[in-house]
Amino acid sequence: MKTPKELLDELLKFIEKLAGKEGVMVFKELMKYDGVTEEQIADDLGMKVNDVRKVLYKFEEYGLVKSYKEKEDENNQIYYLWRIERDTLNQSLLLLKKEVLKKLEEKLEDEENEVYFYCPKDFTRLRYSEAMLYDFTCPKCGTPLEMDEDNLSKVILKKYVNKLKEEIENEEKSL
């Protein structure tokens, strides 16, 4: 069982992959509030409001955050507050992981069904059909291509696919 700190670290790593370092900053800031404006986040972090807004919209697209309308009493001006969707956060992250897994599995299938060649000099990597077009010589430097028998990409993809499957399985058990 993971500790809360380990879970938070894992979540923030995922957020960084989704929205970069700015996304992590915005998410951490959102964690401090039950509802906060884009302007307040931008002001607190020293960011441009448009940059904060882009990150928030990306989070909203994946169901990680939600905005809701509020009215100011004195000017009757409408503004939006943002908050983390704590109730559905785990489910949203699980769906995201499943999407990533599907893409990784498609890429792995491609790696398993295709023959690749590479340039030992500059490491340009080509599919068999592309290598044929260049008479099995590197299009960049003219070095003869070699068959990628080890296919390190396939090995790495298998590792990530298996790890992600295990994470998804564990998370589905805990929901």
Automatic annotation (TrEMBL):
Residues of the HTH TFE/IIEalpha-type domain: 7-90
Keywords: DNA-binding, Transcription, Transcription regulation
A GO term for molecular function: DNA binding
Stretch forming the signal peptide: none
Family statement drawn from the similarity comment of this UniProt entry: Belongs to the TFE family.
Domain notes per entry: The winged helix domain is involved in binding to DNA in the preinitiation complex.
InterPro entries: TF_E_archaea (IPR016481), TFE (IPR039997), TFIIE/TFIIEa_HTH (IPR017919), TFIIE_asu (IPR002853), TFIIEa/SarR/Rpc3_HTH_dom (IPR024550), WH-like_DNA-bd_sf (IPR036388), WH_DNA-bd_sf (IPR036390)
Protein name: Transcription factor E
Function as written in the Swiss-Prot or TrEMBL entry: Transcription factor that plays a role in the activation of archaeal genes transcribed by RNA polymerase. Facilitates transcription initiation by enhancing TATA-box recognition by TATA-box-binding protein (Tbp), and transcription factor B (Tfb) and RNA polymerase recruitment. Not absolutely required for transcription in vitro, but particularly important in cases where Tbp or Tfb function is not optimal. It dynamically alters the nucleic acid-binding properties of RNA polymerases by stabilizing the initiation complex and destabilizing elongation complexes.
Subunit structure: Monomer. Interaction with RNA polymerase subunits RpoF and RpoE is necessary for Tfe stimulatory transcription activity. Able to interact with Tbp and RNA polymerase in the absence of DNA promoter. Interacts both with the preinitiation and elongation complexes.
GO biological process terms held by the UniProt record: regulation of DNA-templated transcription; transcription initiation at RNA polymerase II promoter
Keyword Repressor set for record: no
